[in-house]
């Protein structure tokens, strides 16, 4: 059976997925916390939006560098599930109707990263290569 031409790249593409998803989440958080990039919503989040902004910005940054990838991705997956059910589901049952597709997609991408790990281009991978035997 022939291998798919991208198969040799799968581990590196896992790292690329993690980095891109982390950057996108970081920017969601930076909009809430610092209004950068500028948005109609403005900065200065409070309450649950402040908590979401901190998780998005900090978690996105950790995902970009690939540090504590599995627990961070699991937390962000939960954050996106909460965001979907609090902000989108009350608008209608289907994500295409309630504009919640992005929250659902993020939720499952982060759940996948929690299960699959960071990939080879990460601080986590570098740390695991440098760990010697425990004496």
From TrEMBL:
Ranges that cross the membrane: 45-65, 72-90, 102-121
Locations listed in the record: Cell membrane
Pfam families, sorted: DoxX
Keyword terms of this UniProt record: Cell membrane, Membrane, Transmembrane, Transmembrane helix
Primary residence: membrane
UniProt topology in membrane: Multi-pass membrane protein
UniProt family annotation: Belongs to the DoxX family.
Protein name listed in UniProt: DoxX family protein
